[in-house]
Structure formats: structure tokens, C-alpha cells
Specification:
elongated; 29% helix; single chain; alpha/beta; 615 residues; 8-stranded mixed β-sheet; 6-stranded parallel β-sheet
Length: 615
Amino acid sequence: MIDRRRFLRTTLGAATGVAAGIAAGPLVSSAARAESLNAAVAESAALLPFVDWYHTNELPNTTAENNAAVVILSGMQRVWKTGSTWDSGVPVDHDLLRANVGYCALVTAKRTDAEAKQAFIVDRQHQSYSMIAGLGPLAELYRTGAKAVTGITSAPDGTPPTTISDTLPADAPPGSALGSGATDSALGLVAQLVNAVRGPHTSSNPSKYGYQYPRPWRLNPDSVVVDTGALDDLGYPVYETDVIVAPQLLRQRSKAPVDDAGFVSGHTNAVYLAGLAYAYAVPERFQELMAHAATEAHTRIVAGMHSPVDVIGGRILGTALAAATLSNPVNAELKAAARAQALEYFAAQTGTTDLWAYAHSSGLDTDPYADREANLRALTPRMTYILPREGRRREMVVPKGAEVLLETRQPYLSAAQRREVLRTTALPSGYVLLDSPELWGRLNLFAAADGYGAFDSAVDVTLDAALGGFHAADAWRNDIAGCGGLTKRGSGSLTLSGDNRYSGGTTIAAGTLVAGSRDALGRGNVHVGAGTLAVTAGTDGRPALVVGGALTLARESTLEVRLDPKHVPATGRTVQLIRAGRVRGTFGTVRVTVPGLRALPVYSSTGVAIRLFPA
């Protein structure tokens, strides 16, 4: 409902050797199915929200007719036409795919030895473990409390003699576990939550089989597979390509390309799933975890193992699946328990009641995500990489399951800061949300972590009476920096608190909008239509609401004057309510919340005041 709102959603890693007994042939989409995909997508998407059928994301479901994940990734069909075999697909958008593979060639050609080694570590570590680093000052405390370990702590200088997998190190403490840690540890519930979010219906494999877009090291600059017929020194086929795989990962390549498509990136899907699970349990590091997920995902391109299209697809899939899994009622008790456990554990370990401050107490020398602006500069180009935007811009609607993700008292805040924090898209499902040019799954999670901002279009808030009121707490962050604004619709009420600013203006089309503090709605114009503007009269003689632009009042508009019963101004006294750049029109109805009083509005060219009289 209002812009700024953090994301935290109420809302697996690829299994080796895809499911026994399932032949590769039938899993590859036929040309006929590819032709019918768009129609199937439209029909499926209209029938069921993703969160209601995400459980269909499993083998052997690999088409839009039977898999929700294939549906949400359907934009790929405007770029790539799947063939009848793994190597017979053809580009649809030649320019985009040429840029896609060209970017891989450029990045891998400029890759340093250090970058290659880091790409190896990310490739080989359990993704749930690698995401712990995003916890910053809390990371080592988490590893200890969760008994989370890894066997991959460094990378070889060149190509290792054998394949390498993550295993428990010989010196690991008793009871240790890979990934998110041991489920019977001091942070076992958090580990369980991460495992649940990366559960049985969150694999990227069905989509890989469904789209069969090859890995970049198998593609020439035109996204065509050309097998030269030669084998390299390790026995792998040599393809016509400009993409250079990191030497440490040459033996990790698959020799079964039908089981090893590039789109979507399974590692990217996994790090976003794990990252959002950690962010739910430890929201103090939400923004940093999202920045870390983007960094981890980018190493897939640096490694030569994936392309920008693959990584973007993995982010779409991981975001959607995390929201769906976290919104599943089955996980409701676990979510609450994991958050409570994390808060109690870290408070005890750090000896602080201000966990947010502790989580941001390190500098760049030990916390690579300590600089928020640097995080943003690194993350922003990775939302779309160098790929040209295709198709007409469509309004994004909030998917079911992505409305309210965490609603909790935050005891770690100081008494002055304490408030109920609602971590959400802040919009009911089905309503418009535009926080970037991206669509579902490609939400700007970094902006969500800080609070939604820079909207390009107005945000419609529709509240029905059945939904009751909505209180926009923590509203000092509710700031649309772009040209967008806030539109209040519906019969319910929307209560603002803090300093809310909407550059594109505010429209109260229906229902009640409660301006909760001085300077609320401070930028842009305000238009009051058939709705009600509720303003609390101050006692210091200053206006309670400042409108930077014009205040336009329709004949059917209503002004509700809210008074503190303990500090009612004397009757006959003029009380300033609103100051604006210009006032046009008058309120059709003026009412006072204190019984026995009526208000006479006093208009000027730049403001609205009232005089109180006995009713």
C-alpha cells in the first residue's frame, strides 16, 4: 500500500543426476509444445496464482501446461525457441542473445585468477552455507550456533585432478552439518527454515529441461551449438565458442548436455532461496543478503558456466519460490519460531538489545557489504545486465503470497524507535506495484530491503471494509522518489505515520486517508475526490499537514478533523490544519471526531483552517 515497504516475504539446488528412471528424451519440449506455450501460459496464469500451484514444479513436469515455474519464466519464449533436441533450439531475439553470449565472452576473457578461484568456491560450496557470509558481523556467530561447516575453503591454482564436492571436513565439531547447519543446534530452527524454503518443489531442473537453452561455453556468438568434433585434453567435446570456463571448473562440467542446460541458473535460484530464508529470520541483514545473493549469482557468469539470461531467470525463479514457500501455511509456525530463535540467540551472543546496530557495526575491511551505496551501485546493473529491454512495459501486480511476509514487534529497537514493523510489499495481491522496470520475480529486492522507493507510476491502494484499516508504521521511509504517487481507493482506511512524501502527488479517491504527522504527503499535489482526508489538529498553532503542491478538493470530498479530547482548542478559535502551495475548491463535508462540536472551515489561497463551535 504505500511505497516504501520492506520485502521480507511470507511468502532445490539442482540434484545431481536428475531422477532415476526418467528418460531425457521425453523431458525435452517438442516444437509443437513450444509453439503452444504462450497460449498455455496465458491460460494457466489466469487460472491459478503461482503460490497455489508452485508444488507442480517437479520432474517430470516441464511444460507450461503442468508446471508453474515454467509459466513464470515464459518470457524466455520471446527470446529463444526450444528445439526437439538439446542442441536444436534457435534464437528468436537475435540481438538480445548475441548480447547475452557476448557479455559472457567479455567477462571470462577479463577474469582474474582471484575471480576464477572465487567462482570455484561459490560453485562447489553448498549454497546455503555460502549465503551465511551475507550476515556480516553475525556470520561467524551463526556458523558456530548452527554448527554449519564446509569442506570448500579455498581453490586450486589450476584444474584439479578430479572433481571436487563439498563434504564435512575431518576436524568439524561433532554434530556439524553442511549448508545451513544442524537442525538440532542452537539455531536449528533457522536451519530448518532455510531447508524448507529450499524444499522439494524449488528445483531449477524442470525449467532447464523445459527450455533447453545451453550453457554459454557450448554456444557460439549467435547462440548456436556447433560441435567441432574434437575433444579437449580432459575428454570433453570442443564447441565453437568465445566463452572461457574457469580452469578450476573444467572437470566440473557435465558430459550430458541434455541434463545440463544453462537456463535457468540453479546456483542463482539456490542462493536467492537461501538468502531470502536467512533474511526472514534475520531481517537486520536483509539488504546485505540481497546484495550478497547478487554477487554470488554473478560469479556464475565469471566462471563461464552461465549467462546473464540464466542468472536473471534464476533470480526470478528463486524469488517466486521463496515467496510461495514462505506463504505456505505449513511453514507458518516454523517461520515465527525461526525468527524468535535467531533474535534470542544473537541477543545473547552479542549482549545487545540493538541487534540492527550490531549487524551493521563492521567496516568494509571485514564486511564487504558495509557500504549501502556501493552495494546499490554493484547490484543495479545486474538487474538486467547489458540486455536490451523487450516488449511493452506492463503494470506489475503483486502476486498472491507476496503481500505480507513478516508482521512482528521488533524488541531489539530502542524505546524511542520501537514500533510495529510490517515487512511487506504493502499491497494486497492483485494490485499494482511498480518499483522498477522489472516484473514478478524480478522485484528490486534491494529497494525492498530499504523500503520501496523510486516508483515510476502512482501506486493504487485499495482497501475494502472487510480488510479494515492499515497502519503504515515506520513510515519515515515511505518516499516515492520518482514521478509516481499514492492513490487511495476502496472503503477502508489507510493511516500514515512519520514523514511521507510522494513526488507525484496523492489522490484520495475513496475511503479514508489519515495523515498521521506534520509534513505527511509533503511533496507533490493532493487531490481529495470522493474520499475522506483525516487530519489531527495540533495544539501548537502550526499546520498539521503540509502539501508542497496544490490541494484540490472535489464537491464530494470530506474533511475529518481529529482532536485530542484532552486538548480541545477553545471554541471560536481559529486552528490551522493544512498549508498548501495552492488550495482549489472546498470540502463538501466537514466533521469533528469529538462529540458536541462542529467545525467551520476557513479557506485561504494557501491553506485550510477551522473554527470550532458547539454542535
